[in-house]
Amino acid sequence: MQKIQILPQTIFEFKSSPQFLRDTQNKVNQLSWEPNMFTQRSQDIYLNKNHLFDELHEWFRECLLMVKRSVEYQATDVKITQSWANKAEPGQWHKPHKHPNSVFSGIYYLSEDTVGTTFILPNIWETYDGAAGKVGQSFCHFLAEDMNVVEHVVSAEPGKLLIFPSTLEHGVRPNETENERYTISFNAFVCGDIGSFGNLSGLTLDIK
Hints:
With 208 residues, the chain is of the alpha+beta class. Helices cover 19% and strands 36% of the residues.
């Protein structure tokens, strides 16, 4: 018997300069925080409208446009709709989840991390009713006990940016270090002329 791995998928990775990373780290240190289930997030959940982070989100948007072109998404533009920072104390974790009302999502890593981000898809050989609904109290227990999913862990490196479909389920295992873990996340939606008017499937959407 031979096992054949099939249907590979693609997400996108970018890397910022060390100086750009340091500048962003300093700005994030000025933020205030609030609880977010098993982790923490910035009280400001519209960093994309915070002028302190203008340069960062312009770079995010440049990367988004490259992704849009690569996947040949029929839209004239893409805009970030919401952006926030995440902080995890030692032992804190983020349950598996998706981002509704969004096309693209991104994670920008600001600190060293031993666990990275876990991406989850249904196992084609099993029935599946969603990781987010079954996670209970333990992310690790879910992944150890439930064989209805397949997972892939992307390592976390300071300065790395990941862009992926907002429908792709993902989560973060508990922070194993003695330090706080920081990331910035964002959602984005396509806008302008979308689809094909010639095929009677077009629309024009403006995002403010």
